[in-house]
Amino acid sequence: GEPWKRTEVELLRRTVLSFGLGREAKCLRAMRQATKVCRHLEGDVRDAALGFLHALERIADPKEEDFLQRQVAGLVRQSREDGCPAVPLEAEWEKLEVHGPGWIKRLRLLDNLRGVLAMVAEGARAQAAATVGSIPDLVSPAPWWGFDQDLALMRGVYKHGYGNYEAARADPEFAEAFAPAKEDKEVRRVSHHKTARPHPPSC
Prior knowledge:
This protein is mainly alpha-helical. The protein has nine helices and no strands. It starts with 5 loop residues before the first helix and ends in an 8-residue tail after the last helix.
């Protein structure tokens, strides 16, 4: 494939950390939206992601090795199924030593999210809800928040990318799940208006 520029490597890293591994088509579309010219193909994106994983393996805590190895094996298997031998990208990943552990946690989070959504798609909603409920120190952000909102948030992240919460909230696909948020905001606005101290009459 075409050689990778440093800016493209950085864009690839951000995109993979936004949408997760094994989603080359989604990552490639996002990269093409972010830059005027993107000469790479899905196979190139997979090879770059493999290079990223190999770099993370070099700095990973031993407890993360199994997760990373499984991700590498999955990408290599996909390349084999596509009839294209995997050629991991050799690149310099800036600030790898500092941010690498956090990047691994992000990739694991996105992988777990994908697993929960797969459970729901397969009809195992109760199992998915139990999986989400078992997350340590999980706190609902509002009294009205439940699994439907968890699910909408996860689907929003899967569709729009990690951290792009405003796009998820504005997406009509998730409007019903997030409708209580608008109602709650309106109730608080009206309550604040009613309890606000009146201005003294002007003389």
